[in-house]
Amino acid sequence: MMSTVRTASTRALAATATLLLLTAAAPAADMVPLMDSAPEAATEAFAAPSPWQVRVRGLGVITNDSGSVNGVAGSDLSYSDSVIPELDITYYLTDNFAAELILGTTYSNIYGEGSLAAVGKVGKTWLLPPTLTLQYHFTDFGAFKPYVGAGVNYTMFYSQKGDAASSLDVKNTFGTALQVGADYMINEHWGVNFDVKKLFLKADFDATIGGTNYSGKAKLDPWLIGAGITYRF
């Protein structure tokens, strides 16, 4: 009889202990997802910036005054400089490498020089030279972020008008580009930018002057010097 009572008591104590252990484990199990979510929240707080960036710049276009007319000894050409707005769209492939599309349009007056100086203003053309560069961004200087780049452009000439020439046709052409610049980031989104590009651009042209047809090459090769505002999404 005594043995039976002891056995019942032992079973009761075991059941009670099991119940207490299960009760204590339940809150601990509920806490696991909360503890797991903490690293996720921290990861989101320190998420990488968007790969997209835009810049708006004021840009000085300074041309190389050089060119020639076929069959005219001592011929030369010069072109007007200009100041224009420019929009750049950048996509970061990695922290260091980015692709940038450069958009802007301007016009240029074309003048005869050398043996063509008496001709004066040959005509005027607008040009749109979208340029795509691949950049390397240095990341070891804190808020100061310099970069270098190289790429290609395709220059389209439009709204062409002759002056001394009764007709003017500057041909669309491919060119290459070199670039160096830097951003100084004021915060994670906003910064200021300075940028210098050199385009190697030599376009063929046809012109009619005094009833005679001429052809030649306009060696524009402009420097593009700009400063503006950067926004990183």
UniProtKB/TrEMBL annotation:
The reply to whether Cytoplasm figures as a keyword in the UniProt entry is no
Q: Which InterPro entries match?
A: OMP/PagP_B-barrel, OMPW
Q: Which UniProt keywords apply?
A: Signal
Kindly indicate whether the keyword Signal belongs to this entry: yes
> Any signal peptide, and if so, which residues?
1-28
An example of a Pfam family matching this protein is OmpW
* Superkingdom, taxonomy of origin: Bacteria
Q: Which residues form a coiled coil?
A: none
**According to its UniProt record, which protein family does this protein belong to?**
Belongs to the OmpW/AlkL family.
What is the name listed in the Swiss-Prot or TrEMBL entry for this protein?
Answer: OmpW family protein
Q: Which organism is it from?
A: Rhizobium rosettiformans
Q: What is the lineage of its organism?
A: Bacteria, Pseudomonadati, Pseudomonadota, Alphaproteobacteria, Hyphomicrobiales
